[in-house]
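Incident log, structure service

09:12 report received: a user says their structure output differs between two submissions of the same chain.
09:20 pulled the input from the user's history:
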Amino acid sequence: YHGGFAMLVAHSRRCEEAVTRVKYSSATISLRGWQIAIRGNHVYGRVSGPTHRLDVSFAASSGAASRDAPHGLVGQSFLSEKRRSGKLDAYPASGRIATSAQ
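09:34 re-ran on a clean worker, output below:
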């Protein structure tokens, strides 16, 4: 233990500007107009590997994107409200695929 803190189900904690709320299988972190939601879920249709996953979503409010000079893949997606559609791969019904949409 290095000075962090533990959280119980259905509790929240504040650390300066950051507020963390924990429910049974999810957590929300709010900071300077940003909301980050983390939810546990099952891996459906699993062939091998982990049986659970974490779904992470980001939302900006209160002009957070314009205030904090967004950068990186996540930040740039909040640069404006204009829809962005990147390159998509066409997946064949069978066989191999070489991806080019990165």
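09:41 both user submissions now match this output. Likely a transient worker issue. Closing.
09:42 reviewer note: The chain has a mean pLDDT of 80. The longest helix spans residues 72-76.
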